[in-house]
Each structure stands twice: as C-alpha cells, then as structure tokens.
Amino acid sequence: MDKLNRRRFLKYSGGNISLMALAGKRLEASEPMKSINHRQAANPSTVDVAVIGAGAFGGWAALYLREMGLSVALIDAYGPGNARAASGGETRQIRAGYGEREIYTRWVIEAFKRWEARQEEWGGLPLFYRTGQLSLYREGGSRSFRATQTVLTKLGVENEVIEHDEVARQYPQFNLDGIDFGYYLPSTGVLMARRGCFAVAEDFQRKGGEFILAKAKPGRQAGRQLQEITLSTGQTISAENFVFACGPWLPKVLPNPMKDRLVTPRRSTFWYGVPPDDNRFTHPNCPNFSMAGVYGFPSIEGRGLKFATVYDSIPFDPDTDERLVTENEVGRAREFLDKWFPALRGQPLLESRVCQYETSVDDNFIVDHHPDMENVWIVGGGSGHGYKHGIMLGDYVARRVTGQATDPELDATFKLKAETF
Ligand SMILES: Cc1cc2nc3c(=O)[nH]c(=O)nc-3n(C[C@H](O)[C@H](O)[C@H](O)COP(=O)(O)OP(=O)(O)OC[C@H]3O[C@@H](n4cnc5c(N)ncnc54)[C@H](O)[C@@H]3O)c2cc1C
Known about the structure:
By secondary structure, this protein is an alpha+beta fold. It folds into two domains: 201 residues, FAD/NAD(P)-binding domain (3-Layer(bba) Sandwich); 175 residues, D-Amino Acid Oxidase, subunit A, domain 2 (D-Amino Acid Oxidase, Chain A, domain 2, 2-Layer Sandwich). The chain contains twelve helices and 23 strands. Strands 1, 2, 9, 10, 13, 14, 22 and 23 form an eight-stranded mixed β-sheet that branches. The protein has an eight-stranded mixed β-sheet with strand order 6-7-5-17-18-19-16-20. A hairpin with a 2-residue loop joins strand 17 and strand 18. Helix 3 runs parallel beside helix 7 and helix 3 packs across helix 11. Bound molecules: flavin-adenine dinucleotide (FAD).
C-alpha cells in the first residue's frame, strides 16, 4: 500500500503547508501516543476496515476505528477536505438549535466538548471559534424557533430572548427594521472545516492509519460479502468491512441503492470586506447571525463577513461542474448585505464559493448496511448540517462497524429509508 509520507500528504491534500507544518511540529513533540494500540496491518493491502472518503464523516470514522486498535485504510479521490468536498469549505457552523430534532441537539452538546478537547490534543490549532449566534425575528418568531427554545431549555443549554431595544444597544451593526426580538445562543460557534479534515487525517496517519490518494470502486463480491475495492492506482484492498462515506458522490459510487435517495443541491457562499477602522463585524465583536432565511459568520482570521445563501438550488455534479457564482446571485447577495449591514454598503466582495452537499429524503444522516452486502456500510446524507456532527458520527460509525451497542433511537433515525426522491 502506498502510504503517503508527510511531504507527499501535504502536497496532495492541498492544505495550508506552513500552518500544517507548524501543527505537525507541535504534534510530533507529544509522540509517541501510548493510549492506542498501534497494530499495523501485516499485509498492507488487507486491512480490518477500508474507509472510502476523507470528509467530515469518513475522516472521523477512520480515526475512531484506528483509535480502537483496528488496521484502517482511508482512501480519498481528491484528498481530505478537498475543494470539491462538502467538507471542503473554509468554515462551518456548530449550533445546538435544531427545532424539534432533539437527538441532534443532544449530539451537539457532546460535540462542543469533543471539538475543544481535540483542539487541545492537537496543540491548540484553531479549529473551533465560540462566536455565539443571534437570530432576528418578527413578533412570535417561527415554529422552529419555539421548538428550539423548548428543547434547549429542557436540556439546559443557555438561550436568551433579547427585546428589540436591547438588541439595538448591543448589536448596532445590524439593521433591525421590522425586527421585534433577537434570540441569542452563546454556545454556537464556527468550525474551521477543511483545516479540521486535514487535522483528522494527519492524526489518523500519525496513529498508524494508512491514507491513500485514489479513487475507489467496489470490486469482487462473494455471496453477501464485498471482498475488495479497486483503486485508480491499480491496487486492490481487501477488508473485513468497508465504509463508503462518499458524501455527494454516494449515488455515483453505489448507484444501488443510493440513486434517487440523495439529491446534491448547489450552494453559494460570499465573503464581504469589513472596514479596517470598524471592528464591529469581526470576531469576537460580532456573533454568527441568521435572518430572512440566510445565516452567516463574523469575519474570522481576516476572511471577511461570510454568509451562505440558498439561491439557485439546482442539482450539482461534484466532479465536473464549474464553481462560479452567477451575476444574479452576486446581485442578491449584495442586496442582503446592504439591507442588513448598512455600514458595509460599498464594501467589496472578497471571495465567493460554490459548493454542494447531499440531502437525504428526510434530512437525517444515513448509517446503514448495504442491502446486498453485509460488510458494506453506507455513511452520508449530511443534508447541509453534517460537519459539526462528524466528531460524533465517526464514533457512532466505529461502534456500529465493530458491533458495539448503540442507541436504538439513533439506529432508527439513520436507517436507509425506503422512500426515494
Ligand atoms: C455551503 C455549505 C454550507 C454548509 N454549512 C454547514 C454548517 O454550517 N454546519 C454544518 O454542520 N454542516 C454544514 N454543511 C454540511 C456539511 O459540510 C456536510 O454535511 C459534511 O461536510 C459532509 O461530509 P461528508 O464526509 O459526508 O462528505 P464530503 O465532505 O463531501 O466527503 C466525501 C469525500 O469522499 C471522497 N470520495 C467520493 N467518491 C470517492 C471515491 N470513489 N473514491 C475515493 N474517495 C471518494 C470525496 O473526495 C470527498 O472528500 C454545509 C455544506 C455546504 C456545502
């Protein structure tokens, strides 16, 4: 097996070399890690588990499996957190508010702690900024707001309704015309997305996991067992279990059963300049925000005020489609900026990105056996909210694959549903 050495790994994965080299230096200082069993595969083309896809879901699953002492190969066609991947953006939100979907809130409460612990373990590399989030509402709010309020209060997550005048006093950078109140969640934050994928894959390698840069496809099958996968490098890898965590690629890699069970909508994100003499839009002076169906983040690490839109929700091919925002989208993003952030009128658009995620029929994640191959696990369906949960889902997947007990409510929620689009 072609284990990438550190230099090649950095080169291929397209990460920020100086930052990761720095991180690597700090991490090497704490080696050797004695807390895990460093069992290496006797024959590197035969492993206990092959994980296909090094995004938020596959990367974390591979790391947890390796930390359990299994021999694991992690394979990605373009590299961890690559530019085409759903996990490949600069930043992703971590929020506890999930409306009525309490199981995700419960996971996030634990995820907050785990992200902080991993950041600490990996030498303080910034992966998680605790920004807080302010949502702006008209009188009565929305149904989802009311459900969130009930669930967060029940689970003891700090949340606060702030009256209009107090919002105006605390957050003068927002235009509050037509707004009656704000809802503030201090626990919410921002995760550094592609940096996180890279850090996970690095730790996986450091702990003895094998990362391979290659495109994989299912190979020989015997009865209800997949025997091996074949790689674009010409290699084959056999394993006891296979985890296909290919995100928006799942319908291509496993057309049976994933065709029509996921859609891959196009999404665009925008970063606008903030004035050098006005720090009200920069973390920690500005929280994450959400209003009029759009959410965004303060300027973090000098990137500019970011927001994500759902304009032009059309199917997107993650391999071949070009990632250019349209003039229409730029116009509508500018309208949003001018309306809600009057002090940023005239600031330049610094950056824009087009990406895609994959949505399942019920917006729930999918973790289930392949219907025809018992040792194949299908992991995906991030549905636009998966990144923050990778740190929990990876653990859950590792437990399922190794036959450990898991919460039946989660098992039912993540079951591959019969419905199709
Ligand atoms: C614009 C946008 C905003 C979002 N906002 C948030 C947010 O604020 N908070 C949040 O929690 N989530 C958010 N999400 C969702 C979140 O990013 C995704 O749910 C999550 O990153 C999905 O991770 P994944 O590992 O399933 O998929 P991916 O990250 O896409 O990873 C799949 C990997 O599989 C690899 N692969 C595919 N096919 C093969 C093959 N044949 N062989 C080898 N490798 C292969 C790919 O190269 C890729 O790296 C957002 C997504 C987008 C696009």
